[in-house]
Amino acid sequence: MNEQLEDIEVALLLDGMYRYWGVDFRDYSPASIKRRIREQVTNENLPTISALQDRVLHDRAALERLLLSLSIHVTSMFRDPTFYLTFRRKVVPLLRTYPSVRVWCAGCATGEEVYSLAILLQEEGLLERARIYATDISRDVLRKAKDGIFPLSAMQEYTANYQRAGGTRQFSDYYTAQYDAAAFHEKLKTNLVFSEHNLVTDSSFNDFQVVLCRNVMIYFNKQLQARVHNLIYDSLTMFGVFGVGNKETIKFTSCEDFYEELDNHDRLYKKVR
Prior knowledge:
Layout: H1 3-21, H2 30-43, H3 49-58, H4 60-70, H5 81-95, E1 101-106, H6 112-123, E2 130-136, H7 139-147, E3 149-151, H8 155-164, E4 175-178, E5 181-184, H9 186-189, E6 192-196, E7 208-212, H10 222-235, E8 236-243, E9 259-263, E10 268-271
Parallel strand pairs: 1-2, 1-7, 2-6, 7-8
Antiparallel strand pairs: 3-5, 4-5, 8-10, 9-10
């Protein structure tokens, strides 16, 4: 295909998605976006990106399928176990000083991080006075996250992660095995709120003691990263904690001087101004 024509089609598709559906991928990494759009054209059995644009603009279900393709949903429970171990040691003592705790998991995908955090807070005696807001751009992944049902085949890996993350109980205490699936207990969901939120176009919606936005911004360009950093800064209370993925950093951003580093390896920062 003509490379120039394909670039025009991609630009028109992304602009149409933004103008009609309000979802904005225009500032994501171009190479990654183009590759995923090509894959979706094949998945939808369409001849061109322009044909995909036509389908997406007229069919919400087609939009959801494209969002699943464009958004990164590679995750697991207690992923990067040392992060959760560090969270227990350095963040939990700070959270104990608050009468109530609000946590925002931005870009929560299918919810593995959310349930990991709920388990951690329950073991630390904080879940009852905490509310975890889990947001993502895709309705479909939010439905999966809210269900709290994960493949039983993944539980061995998740159990090992949980143990390395400082877990204090049997991981199997938190779910019920049903055929080939593990359904996590309703008690963990009591203080979870799942909602659509677009980091690119939506504004802050509360004040939080913790915001986790891990392994999300690595797919954004510099301009979009700056916008999200400002959004998260505005969403944190003073002395609130911000966590990013271990391949991400706040260094060399406009917000760098507003944080104190809690842990360099596990990328935890405290807002100090």
